[in-house]
Amino acid sequence: MTGLLSVSLSALGYTVLATDIEPTLTEILAPNVRQWMHGESSGGAGRISTCFLDWNLGPDWRSIEAAFSGGTDRFQGEVPTSNHVNESHGAVSGAPLRTTLDTGSDEALPIDLIVSADTVYAVELVSPLLVTISVLSARSPKPPVIYIALERRDPCLINTFFQLAREMGFKSVQVDASRLRKIVEGMQWSEEDWEAVEVWKLSNASLKK
Q: Where is the secretion signal located (predicted)?
């Protein structure tokens, strides 16, 4: 389900900015988020906003600000969307988010958490993805925690991702598989559902203020 990651974070109380490309953003992601926010199970959940973010073009800060501020009083109402030319397939999330960000002023958006799932799938997008993560992290007063969930379908591609991450100053630490096993077994998933999945925590000391 497109948006499942964002919905899951919302259910945990996070305020979430979910991003994707067009037409997936307006045709699939936003409707899925809207359905969740209107559902009975969303009571007490954090707000989800959606935004179009293009890794190749970089973040459109005014679009991101509009996505957050446009839904401030609509925790379970309409999901604000932006159609500026941007791209991403992950979730930028904060808990509970303080909604200001850099748009040419001295204010910045404190992002507490960046989570990206199944986004390492094409070699030409590896660099744009890491650059986007770096830019988002650098605009926050405190560098956010970064988690990347991936499936090692193409070992060469995954190795390329982590090699470039190292060159860009990122430290990558894999979340212990036993921790993941405990979580997924508690959810009664079969091993076939997640056996090739890895979760990595990224940090970049050079981004610290």
A: 1-18
**Domain end among 47, 72, 97:** 72
Check whether residue 68 and residue 126 sit in a common domain.
no
Does 122 lie in the same domain as 68? no
Residues whose CB falls within 8 Å of the CB of residue 152, separated by 6 or more in sequence, listed in order: 158, 196, 198
Q: What is the distance between the alpha carbons of residues 121 and 134, in angstroms, rounded to a whole number?
A: 19
pTM, 2 dp: 0.77
- Whether 199 is covered by a domain: the verdict is yes
Helices and strands in the chain: count of H runs, count of E runs:
7, 7
123 in a structural domain: yes
Residues 6+ apart with CB under 8 A from 86: 19, 51, 52, 53, 54, 57, 59, 60, 63
User: pLDDT tens, 50-69?
Assistant: 888 888 887 777 777 777 66
